[in-house]
TrEMBL record:
It comes from Spirosoma fluviale. Residues 21-83 form the Peptidoglycan binding-like domain. Signal peptide: none annotated. Pfam families: PG_binding_1. The lineage of its organism: Bacteria, Pseudomonadati, Bacteroidota, Cytophagia, Cytophagales. This is Peptidoglycan binding domain-containing protein. InterPro entries: Peptidoglycan-bd-like, PGBD-like_sf, PGBDSf.
Amino acid sequence: MLKTAYLNELHFTTTQQKGSSGPDVRRVQEWLCLNALRYPTAALTTSLDGEFGPATKLAVQNFQAVLKLPKTGIVTPDLFTKLSAPLATGFQARPASKDIRKAIVQLGQTHLKQRSAELQCADGQNLGPWVRSYCDGLDGSLFKWCAGFVQSILDQAASSAGRPFTDIMPRTLSCDTLALSGQATGRLIRSEAVRKNPQRVRPGDVFLLRTSTPADDWYHTGLITAISDDVVETIEGNTDLKGGSNGTAVFSRVRNFRKTTLDVFTIDGL
């Protein structure tokens, strides 16, 4: 794979416990908060302050209880592996299908099932290990991560077939850069053409939402998993239940392409 920042998120070699402090403690806290999405009945959410105090210790003990482990409140490398298992499962999955389009859909669904999400705190939004993995080590309020999510999935699918996703698009975190490259190479199917001939759109293609005034501006992207009638089904990152373009997680959605200015970047030839 070209996008390998996720490996840094899985690397953890030093035991952390009450009294510890620093970046590794914050990483533990991040994963406690993210696992709260997977185990909603367990009290796992704690502050992201990098200080291993009594609250973090109790949250660790609660996570250990969920897994039926001794409640030591100590985070060893082995326990961190369990905390960060969703990321490893998402990024290290290999598609069952050799068909590139089916592979893209399968991998997108894998990330969706792992409850891929960002974190928010006083430092801002678009934070955490999932965002950094999608955005080449970057996170923070400036980094909307929908394009990073799309390219991570394309990278996984293409690399499993022994080729780079950059054969068809530049590596970027920008929706505009992605769309303009497709426009330059003839891969971008404009919304008007999609509405006229929806058969041109296939699962595995990339959608891009666009404003047309005062000028073209692409502001959100995701993967198309199915198309029928006037709608596409999608998997997309950095969205929410309202379908926003700067949300909190990976969601599967239904979007009406006749009521939305939705362009499509075809992955033919990947």
